[in-house]
Amino acid sequence: MAKMRSKSELPTKLCVHCLRPFAWRKKWARDWEKVKYCSQRCREAALPNPPKALSKTL
Questions:
Q1: What span, in angstroms and rounded, lies between the C-alpha atoms of 39 and 14?
Q2: What are the tens digits of pLDDT across the range 8-51?
Q3: 25 or 4: whose pLDDT is higher?
Q4: 55 has pLDDT over 80
Q5: Do 24 and 10 touch, CB atoms closer than 8 A?
Q6: Distance CA 37, CA 17 (A)
Q7: Quick one: which of 14, 15, 34, 51 could link to 38 by a disulfide (CB 3.0–4.6 Å)?
Q8: Is residue 54 predicted with pLDDT exceeding 70?
Q9: Which helix (H) or strand (E) holds 14?
Q10: How many CB atoms lie within 10 A of CB 13?
């Protein structure tokens, strides 16, 4: 089993949308290099064209 780390020892990145720092999560272990956004909300807000389902409701 892997050694437990404190949260301050985990790698961090800056979100490309909100520029806030966010820490590594286990669910991102396989593709940490590809992760750009801190949350689903930032990822959706950064889309150049909203999905069709969203544009119909607006």
A1: 12
A2: 789 999 999 999 999 999 999 999 999 999 999 999 998 877 66
A3: 25
A4: no
A5: yes
A6: 7
A7: 15
A8: no
A9: strand 12-14
A10: 17
What's the pTM value of the predicted model, to 2 decimals? 0.67
Q: Which amino acid is at 40?
A: Q
Alpha-carbon Rg of the chain, whole angstroms?
15
Handedness of CA 24, 28, 30, 34 (dihedral sign): negative
DSSP annotation string for 21-43: EEE--GGGSTTGGG---SSHHHH
DSSP code of residue 7? G
Length, in residues, of the chain: 58
